[in-house]
Amino acid sequence: MQDFSGKIAVITGGGTGMGRALARQLIAQGCHVATCDIIEENLAQTLQICSSEAPQGIRISTHVCDVADEDQINGFREALQSEHGCDHINLLFNNAGIGGGGSFVNSSREEWERTFNICWNGVYLMTRAFLPLLLNSEQGHVVNTSSVNGFRASLGGNVPHTAYSAAKFAVKGFTEALINDFRFNAPHLKASVVMPGYVGTQIAKNTGRILGQKPPQDLTDEEIETSRGVWSKGGWVEIDERASSDDIRQQLQARFDEYDKGGLTPDEAATVILDGVKADEWRVLVGPDAVALDRAVRESPVDAYDLDFSDKVWASMIERT
Questions:
Q1: What is the Cα 85 distance to its own chain's centre?
Q2: Between the CA atoms of 290, 98, 227 and 234, what dihedral angle is there, to the nearest 10 degrees?
Q3: Contact 182/191 with Cβ under 8 angstroms?
Q4: Model's pTM, two decimal places?
Q5: What is the CB-side half-sphere exposure of residue 315 using CA atoms within 13 A?
Q6: What is residue 132's predicted lDDT score, i.e. its pLDDT?
Q7: pLDDT at position 144, please?
Q8: What is the pLDDT of residue 252?
Q9: CA gyration radius for the chain?
Q10: Which listed site, 10, 48, 154, 306, has its alpha carbon 20 to 30 Å from 20?
């Protein structure tokens, strides 16, 4: 699918980050877009931006939808068909995701399952719901966002990241399984798995909102004291006995802000993804860290969870650049 003009794309997680960037780049290339998100105000900003940028005749619609809820997904599909007047779509970008549920031992079951259900079940349920519309197309492509945590189930090397990583491994395996399924049973459809490294999205802030977590400035002194050890082990803050509650609030806020601004920009990531679709790549690595970690895990899989493995990956990345 080297030309997106006149095609119809569905994008989940379109309120911020890569989802919004994908929507903007697709409409600029003449593609009609329907995007969903669970945070309504983010979605409203996407609609405003895309509407102001859309070429004449290009349709853009936004839909509030929790991708872990099958009824809401079916409602999204029906609204799309009504608003766009179509019986098919050409592109499905399963992009929505949150963090959370880092520890299977210490995280609550509710947080763990909420994270897993958005990151994995959202991909499955969306693909299941929109498959008939893809089958109705002359040409279709499913693009599922996994993560470098689908190569190695640990955040930044040594931080537990179990719910997210388990989901991203599932997304990777599911997408690879679709390749032959489509080849033999729906040859006009393609499937690609996207493996982003560090991209400066707003996933950290959005995760807190979706999971009902307080922003750092609203944490009480008691809540901070209770969580000091957890944050320290996770590398979120550098804590000593002299650090006050206000010091920790400031450190946490700085980490959130830093995380959302680091790595590739969402626009850069979206360009890599869309170029990969045009090139018919089934496996799209986004960012030099994704390339480096993929190479390292393939070369030394049994060493992937050694505590110094990340240092070796980053050293090799620097050497190659």
A1: 28
A2: -10
A3: yes
A4: 0.89
A5: 5
A6: 98
A7: 98
A8: 73
A9: 20
A10: 154
Using an 8 Å Cβ cutoff, are 115 and 137 in contact? no
DSSP-based helix, strand, coil % in the chain, nearest 5: 55, 15, 30
- Cα 56 from Cα 279, distance rounded (Å): 27
Give CATH superfamily name and number for 8-200+265-311: NAD(P)-binding Rossmann-like Domain (3.40.50.720)
Strand partners, 155: 159
Residue 166 and residue 120: Cα distance in Å, rounded? Answer: 8
User: Can you give the residue ranges of every domain in the chain?
Assistant: 8-200+265-311, 207-257
pLDDT digits (tens, 9 = 90+) for 266-315: 999 999 999 999 999 999 999 999 999 999 999 999 999 998 998 888 88
Angle 122-135/70-84 helices, nearest 10 degrees?
30
**Between 320 and 239, whose confidence is greater?**
320
Task: Residue 88: name the closest of 48, 34, 51, 49 by CA.
Answer: 34
Q: Of 47, 30, 37, 48, give the one whose Cα is nearest residue 15.
A: 37
Q: What is the mean pLDDT of residues 88-96?
A: 97
